[in-house]
Amino acid sequence: MIFIVVKFTVRPEHSEQWLSLVEEFTLATRAEPGNLFYEWSRSVDDPHRYVLVEGFASAEAGKAHVDSEHFRTAMAWMPDVIAATPEIVHTEVPAEGWSSMAELSPRWA
Length: 109
Known about the structure:
Keywords: Monooxygenase, Oxidoreductase. By secondary structure, the chain is α+β, with helices and mostly antiparallel strands.
């Protein structure tokens, strides 16, 4: 699996609308055959920072994503909205998706 985490720092005047701005891109990416997950979170420390966690089934699926029209479209408008170059972790892991955390599970009374 290709596992990617990207930190986006958004210009303050656009931070409240960020999820709406990336909605079409997000939905198109989630619909890609090789996409395993594509999830946004907002930083609890910086209201202008969003974190994207994404997984693709293979390097080929990741390449198809980067070669897609929706990726090119997003890369065309994002420079006008971000405040800094995004930070990224990109690695291949020997997994096919999420697994359960062994150290923790819900306790029910």
